[in-house]
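Entry: TIR domain-containing protein
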Amino acid sequence: MADIFISYSSPDKDAIQRVYDALTQEKRNIWLNWQESPLTQTEPEIEAAHTCIFFISPHAIQSERCTQELEYAIQRCKRIIPIVLRDDQLKGVHPELARLNWVFFRETDDFNGSFESLLKTLDTDLDHIKKHTRLQQLAKEWDKKQRNNHLLLRGSELEAAEQWFTTSAEIEPKPTQLQREYIDAGRKARTRGQRRLLAGVSVALGASVILGGVAFVQYLKAERLRMQAYTGQIISHSKTAEALFTSGQGFEARLEALKAGRKLQNANWSQKDTQLNANVITALQQTVSWGRERNQLEGHTDRVWDVSYSPDGEWIATASNDQTVKLWRPDGTLVRTLTGHTQQVRSVSFSPDGQTLASGSFDGTVNLWNREGTLIKTIAAHDDAVNSVKFSPDGKLLATASNDQTVKLWQPDGTLVGTLAGHQGQVYGVSFSPDGETLATASWDGTVKLWTLEGEERLTLTGHEAGVSGVSFSPDGQRIASSGADNTIKLWSQDGTLITTLTGHENLINGVVWSPDGQTLASSSDDQTVKLWRLDGETRHGASLQQTLTGHQGAVYGTSFSPDGQTLASASLDKTVKLWQLGERQLVDTLQGHRDSVNSVRFSPQGNYLASASSDKTVKLWQSDGTELATLQENRDRVYDVNFSPDGETIVTVGNDKRVRLWNREGKLLKTLPGEDNLEDGHRDRINRVSFSPDGETIATASEDATIKLWNRNGMLLKTLDEHRSGVNDISFSPDGEMIASVSSDKAVIWDKTGTVLSSWQADDEAITAVTFSPDGETIATASEDKMVKLWDKEGVLLNTFAGHDNPVYAVAFSPDGQTIASGSLDGQIKLWQRDGTPIVTLKGHQDEIRGLSFHPDKQTLASASLDNSIILWNLEDVNQTVLDNLLVRSCDWVGDYLKTNPNVTDRDRALCN
């Protein structure tokens, strides 16, 4: 029999081979079910093994054999080690595996490091585990032979078993019930064999003293092991949160991060581990920053087709393939289930006064229910499936769309008013105009039709290249949105003119709805996402993608905004309805105006403006809240840097065309340096960075031609500094204006304001990419391609090195108070550090290299520029001395309803936010 049992799913055979081979080379005794034998043949191997390794993947989660093997190992209280091969689509992981520390062997993980971790885990408490296995085998044999007293433990063997039992309380795996009974039977047999009570008492007393002393020593050991195990649980939860977040399961990631944070909060010894703190805070920060999901409504047993808020926001109705309609409170409380349809329920809609609910079904009927869920009336509406049902704005009409290619209008008492026939395909969507005078219908024939209420066809909108699945009037009635199987959304004016086409979904779009204020569109798709589109400008003739909501594990069908527009509900193939919070201020705001890489971003000294420079040849000016103000477009080539004068009234830009341009705050070009009459003074290669002196009288430019040039504001070249031997990557004035720091691939140089070299130091093997002075002017921070951030004094003496990035670092910035340092790297990650090098948090959100960082003067916001064409404004108000507590409070604010009302939450998790 083998010491290690391995369970896996056959599609993962190639992936596990490397781990198996490495264990074999380490002389580990392994049993692996290569032939996929049934459980009856693997049971003895699981019984005999000291450890059971389970390879987690989407295939394994779905494998019945893997589940059976896991359940059998759990029943035998085996030590279980979960190994993660892939961290995508891991919804449905067995709860026992979810609570354990995972070992990651993904393609992106360092195999050697993961293997060392696996070996360490295998060897932890090995003596305890071997005794566990042997005692289980002895106990099973005793039980199999009618619990024969001759097979009980005696003497030193019994004492050893008792000692093992005493010390096993805090060690995995725990004793099985059969082991408890076996040891207890041995104790009782020993007691019965004692002839004299006094002797028995004496022996018992002596044993208790000895065992007490042993137990105290073992207690200390157990306490140490408990702390190690507890820390391991924190690490496991934070890594699981990271894996879930990466795979798009933000809500599940938030719960795991919350568990990690709660455990860290309760573990005084762990809080001294700065890296562990930073990892947990990072897991919490990214779920709080990017998560929108607030709750999950779980109760349907099949896909959920549609969802609808009542007009007063007090109810949510859902329609499902399980032939039911469910009524929920906004906090997720299931109030009642409405039954009556004989086939799947496809659509639900509340009347304008909220007193009536209509549901349309594949059985061709429409049921009308009162607010308490009592069936009022059943309308035999169509001879085929009813796909959509909607009340008119005055509540006097009900429109039903069907697979029979018609739309019918009804009075609420069931009287047929009219039939709209004209589509050549199934009709999936219907929408009344806000004034109630026009009806829009969407059909699988690829058209949208506009009708009068008398049944006259007014317009046919053509433009979709496939079936149209949904249609919706804007709240002001001026626009119509339609969604289709061509993966597009089209916006039309009320006269049928196509305004714009929105693309971004990767699959069929099932529907589109407007927010109550008419400024946002929500689209739901078979690609498992909901996308939010923001109407552009005052005319709102266009729209841009604002955010993509991920988390559903199946196609998303219907969506509904709450009446206040603060929450969006989405219904999905995964049998759930998710509630997304839209109104609460997020910890991030993404600015998407540029069409190419953003190379630099700067707050104005007063903090009321933001400027960004891009390879799209523009500079954009924004208000500090992210509202776009102006675009500077007279640059001839890529713009690499932008900066403000100290008074915030002048903007300077530099880039690939080797020129320096000065602008006023309204975006008017004031001056170009050098002028046409002295072009020989200019740089010979692109200009990488530009900076104003603190008095605003001097402009310094750093160029790829290995020089730095100093200019006055009138455009006169004051001096050229040529100490560098390679392109100058960055420059920074000291706060008092007396010094300039510059860095390049070859070295860092400190100059006085006249251009005299004060000190310099050579770069290591990798280029120095960025430099900045601290606000007090006493310290210089540099970033480099060696993945390090370094702090220096003004003489070039190294003070500290911050190691933590896994990729080259290209941006660095001090907070206004000088106590926090931000650094951004090639992988799009930003790290915040205390000045002593203690890591605070890693900010994740960019999809490409970070090229610029700028703190707002109030320190509460950090702006980052990236090659992913975006700027992110990070709200740092929670990143302070109580960052963990603040993030936990925010997390609990978001998941409180879910923990209170969701039926699938365990009792332990339900108390997470108590």
